[in-house]
Amino acid sequence: MRAGSRRSSGFCSSATILTSHTATMSAEKSLAEGSPAPGPVPQDRLRLYSMRFCPFAQRTRLVLHAKGIKFDTINIHLKQKPGWFLEKNPDGLVPVIETPAGEVVCESHITSEYLDEAYPEKKLLPASPFGKAEQKMMLEHFSKIIPHFFKISSAKRKGDDASGLEAELKEKFTNLNEHLVKRKRSFFGGDTITLIDYMMWPFFERLEVFGAQRCLDHTPELKKWTELMLEDPAVKATIHSTDHHKAFFKSYQDGEPDYDYGL
Questions:
Q1: Model confidence pLDDT, tens digit, residues 113-162
Q2: What are the two backbone dihedrals, phi and then psi, of residue 14, each rounded to the nearest 5 degrees?
Q3: CA atoms within 13 A on the CB side of 119
Q4: Which residues 6+ apart lie within 8 Å of 164 measured at CB?
Q5: In sequence order, what E strands does the chain have?
Q6: Cβ 173 vs Cβ 219: under 8 Å
Q7: Bridge partners for 181 per DSSP
Q8: Cβ neighbour number for residue 36 with a 10 Å cutoff
Q9: Do 242 and 183 form a contact (C-beta atoms < 8 A)?
Q10: Which of 86, 66, 67 is nearest to 76 (CA)?
Q11: Hey, is 49 helix, strand or coil?
C-alpha cells in the first residue's frame, strides 16, 4: 500500500541482515547506498526488506510473526537506498518480501495476502469469497483514513488549527466503532484477529505520535479493540515504545530521519 509522501520523504525505507527469527524485533542498523548486496535467501526462510519505524512494513512483520514464518530482516536506509535494493523494487519502497527462488513481492497488503496464501497454516483471511471481499472493502475504506493521521500531525507541528481535521477523524473512528457494535465483534473480522486488524493496527499504535489520541474518546468499542490488540503476541513482537516512535517521527519531520534510533 502506498502513502502519498512515502516515495520522496524517506518515511518508509532502511537495511541490514538479521539472524533468522520468528519472534524478535528488527534490531540491526540500516544499510545505505554503497553497502554490499546480500547473498541468496536461505532455503529455509524468507527475507524481509523493511524499516524499523515504517507502519506499512510493520503490517508485513505482524503477519510473519502471527503465522510463525521463519524470516530474516534487512533494514533499508530509505533516503540513501542501496542500488541493489532498487533493482529488486524500483519504487524504493518497503516492505519487500524475497523468496529463496528470488521471487520478489512488494506492497504491504500484497505481501500480507501472499504470505497468508503461501503459508496456509493459521489462515488470517476468511475462507469464503465474500469474507475475503469484505476484508478488502474494509482495507480500502481504512486507506482513506490514513492521510488524516499525517495531516493532523503536520497541522499541529505548524501551529495551525487542527480541530476540523480532528473532527473528521473522530467521525471516521465513530464509524469504525459502529462497525464493531453492529456486528457484535471484538475484532474487525470476527471474534479473533484476522488480516484486517493487522493492516489497521500500526496506525493506532502511533496515535499519540500523530497527536490524534483523543480522537478515540467516545468510541469505547474501538478503544477496547486497541487494548485487545496490545495483548497479541505478534503486536508485542513488533511494537515500539511511544517515546521511540516520537523520537523517530521528529527526526523524520526535521528532514533527517534517524532510521537507527535506539540501536
A1: 999 999 999 999 999 999 999 999 999 999 999 999 999 999 999 999 99
A2: -170, 165
A3: 20
A4: none
A5: 46-50, 71-75, 96-98, 104-106
A6: yes
A7: none
A8: 8
A9: no
A10: 86
A11: strand
Determine the residue type at 154. S
257, three cell numbers: 530521519
* H helix and E strand count, the chain: 12, 4
What is the rounded distance in angstroms from the CA atom of residue 146 to the CA atom of residue 157? 18
Active site residues: 54
How far apart CA 33 and CA 85 sit, in angstroms, is 9
CA distance 199 to 138: 10
Pairwise CA distance, residues 159 & 175, whole Å: 28
pLDDT in tens, 50-71: 999 999 999 999 999 999 999 9
To which H or E segment does residue 64 belong?
Answer: helix 55-67
CB 12 within 8 A of CB 93: yes
